Amino acid sequence: MRYRKLGKTGVDVSEIGFGAWGIGGAWWAGANNDESLASMCAAFELGVNFVDTAPNYGDGLSEELVGKAIASWPSRIYVSTKVNPMNFKWPAAPGTPISEVFPKEWIVGSAEKSLKRLGIECLDLLLLHVWLDEWAALDEWKEAFAQLKQQGKVAAFGLSLNYPLEPDYGAEAIATGLIDACEVTYNIWEQGPEDALFPLALEKQVAIIVKSPLDEGALTGKITPDTALEPGSFQDFYFSGNRRQEVAERAERLKFLLRDDGDTLAQAALRFCLSHPAVTTVVTGMRKPHHARENIAASDRGPLPADDLAALKAHAWPHNFWA
Fold first, then answer.
1. Is 136 within 8 Å of 172 (Cβ atoms)?
2. Which residues span the domain enclosing 307?
3. Phi, psi dihedral angles at 125 (to 5 degrees)
4. Which residues lie below 8 Å from residue 271, measured CB to CB, with a gap of 6+?
5. Which residues on neighbouring strands pair with residue 13, listed in sequence order?
6. How far, in Å, are 74, 132, 186 from residue 283 at the CA level?
């Protein structure tokens, strides 16, 4: 495992982070608590020291499981969690008053509840789970951040940015100097953050946390037109209609990335994300120990060759399956 600086914080975090959405179950079908804990421990053994979770991942279950895992682990594990929008609307609609989404009391209260579920005294990173740059000049979120930092309850702050990014990619918030990290959707098909966010992050030393590096499983190459998904699950929604056929065809076109025995498309997709110098860590779901071993090996392999990166420009495919 290789490590990178988390922006200006000075903290070294693993290039591959544990994405804890899926272990919360609920909208993600098939989660098993014991298996989730075993997978986290397997990831920690292989050098993962960064976990990304949120209160709405299984109505707090994900945070609770993360808390159990880090409590039993002897080495330092850094935890990032989020503040859900008070109106529970993703993404935030332009023009929405911040009083409906992130009043000061809501931010502070959310952080305190997360601390209890995680069983820790200080959050390493707290992200607002939606964002509009029209809120950048307002006081509510700034006062909440200042209070939580002064009380020693949060060490660093950031944003989990809406998809698609443009035109609201957090530049005004970053300009305040209060943002340590941005979490953003970025993968072989969704290359948009390279245009404006990544150069800004490099300039301002803002950490970039990549979410959805495997496009919810599509970039593993294992989603086919015949893939059976649990009715009512997130993946069943995400890959509804003819989407399974489309992602299967597009994944097949990426097989040129597989050159050596044992190469997997998932590893190539993770290596793509890690090839950009703005990226700090890539968080990916790994609910089973063998997922952890496969994903973490991507860090050891290093960035993709320059020729592959150049070729992948032609495979950019902006698509909003979240809508």
1. yes
2. 3-215+276-315
3. -150, 135
4. 298, 301, 302, 303, 304
5. 4
6. 22, 23, 11
Say whether 282 sits in a helix, a strand or coil: strand
Q: Does residue 46 belong to any structural domain of this protein?
A: yes
* Residues in the chain, total: 323
Find where tokens 């294992």 sit. 222
DSSP-assigned states of every residue in 141-182: HHHHHHHHHHTTSBS-EEEE--SS-TT-SSHHHHHTT---EE
Alpha carbons 204 and 198: distance in angstroms, whole number: 10
Alpha-carbon span 296 to 282, nearest angstrom: 10
- In this structure, what CATH number is given to the domain that contains residue 70? 3.20.20.100
In a domain, 34, yes or no: yes
- Look at the chain and report how many structural domains it folds into: 1
123 and 157 in contact (C-beta within 8 Å)? no
Sign of CA dihedral 201, 40, 218, 94: negative
**Cα(212)–Cα(214) distance, rounded to whole angstroms?**
5
Q: 322 in a domain, yes or no? A: no
In a domain, 244, yes or no: no
Structure tokens at 286: 């790994």
Q: Which residues are paired to 4 by β-bridges?
A: 13
How does pLDDT run across 167-195, given as a tens digit for each residue?
778 999 999 999 999 999 999 999 999 99
Q: What is the mean pLDDT of each run of 10 residues along the chain (323 residues)?
A: 96 97 79 92 97 94 97 96 96 95 98 98 98 96 98 98 83 97 97 96 98 95 92 90 96 94 93 98 94 94 96 95 83
- Nearest partner of 274 among 249, 308, 240, judged by Cα: 308
